[in-house]
Amino acid sequence: MKFLLDIVFLIGALGTIGRYVGIEFFKENSTLFLILFVAGGFGRLVFSMKEQKNSDEVKSQK
Prior knowledge:
Layout: H1 2-21, H2 24-28, H3 30-61
Keywords: Membrane, Transmembrane, Transmembrane helix
C-alpha cells in the first residue's frame, strides 16, 4: 500500500513540477496532477501515522 502511495505522490510531484517548467501536457492536466500530489501526500501521512500508532502499541505491550 505504501509503495502505491509513493508512486501516486511521485507522479503528482513530477506533474506539478512539469507545469511550472512549462511543458504543455502538464499545463493542460495540472488539476489532475495537483490532486494526485495532494492525495498521495495525504495518504502517505495517514499511513505513516497508522504505522507509528501500531509501533507504539507494540512497545507499550512489552
